[in-house]
Amino acid sequence: MAGTVARYFAAILMMLLLAGAICGGVTAQVFPPWNGTFPMGPGGSGGGGASVPAMFVFGDSLTDNGNNNDMTSLAKANYLPYGIDFAGGPTGRFSNGYTMVDEIAELLGLPLLPSHNDATGDAALHGVNYASAAAGILDNTGQNFVGRSPFNEQIKNFEATLDQITGKLGAGKTAQSLARSIFYVGMGSNDYLNNYLMPNYNTRNEYNGDQYSTLLVQQYTKQLTRLYNLGARRFVIAGVGSMACIPNMRARNPANMCSPDVDDLIIPFNSKVKNMVNTLNVNLPHAKLIYVDNYAMISEILRNPWSYGTPSIALFTSSSSLQYTSTS
User: Fold this and answer.
1) Which residues touch 180 (CB under 8 Å, ≥6 apart)?
2) pTM value?
C-alpha cells in the first residue's frame, strides 16, 4: 500500500504543479478516483529536461532519506525491514522504498535528492533533502529520540548548501534557480507526537490546544519567511495527516484503541496552517505557496481504498469513532 499511496500523493502534487497551481494559494482537498496512471513532467519517463531546476525538502520521518544515519539517535531506519523494496537495501528512509518526495522528484524529472550529508559537489545543484526523523517546528520537539535536526537546524543546513551553490553558479544564477525551485516543507506531526502528547514534556501544562497551535504557526511563519529571505519563492506546504489510529498512538492506549482526541488537536492546527499559507501569499512579494491537505487525502484513501488501487486496507469505520477494520 505504501508505494501506491506515495505514488498517488505525488501524482496529485504533480498535477497541481503542471496545472500552474503553484502560482497561487491552493488547498488540495478533493481528489478523483485514481485510474492507475500518473502524470509525467517534461523530465519524466518521456525524457527531456526537468520541470524545475531543483527541489529542497524539509521535514520529518515521512521524508527523511538518511539524514539521521550518522547521528546518535533513536530515530533511524537504516536497517531491515526498512528499504526492502529499495535497490541496495535500507537507506534511512522510513519506508519499504521511495517516499512521497522521491516520487515527486522523479515525476519532476529530477534525480533522487541527496541527503544533506551527501550533498557535495554538483550533487546539490538539483536539490537536497534535509528532513530528519523526530524533527519538529520547535527545537525541543523529539528530544526523547536524542539526535535529530529541528526545522531551524534544517534551514541552517540549507544556508550551508546555498553558499556551496553560490560558489559554483554565482549569486545571480543561484537566485534565478532558487526562484524557480520547489521548497517542500512538511512539519508539525512530531510537535504533537513527540512534544505536546508526551508525558515527560511540560508543554501541555503550559498551553491549551488552541494556544499551542497558535505558537506553532507563529514559529512556522517565521521559519518560512526566513527561507523566503534566503531566496525561496515556490513552496509546497504539507498539512499533518490523521494520527488518531497510527500505531504510535494505539500503542499508548491501554486498550490498543484509536485516540480521536489527537485529531481534535491536529484539525485546528491544519486550519491555521492553511490561513498562514493564504497570508504569506499576500504578504511575500512573488512568493507562491500551495497547501497539500494530507489529512483529507489520507482519510479519502482509507475510506475508498479500492479507488486507489489498494483492495485491502485498514479503514475508519466512522468519522466519530475512528477504529480500524480489515477489508481483505
Assistant:
1) 52, 53, 233, 234
2) 0.86
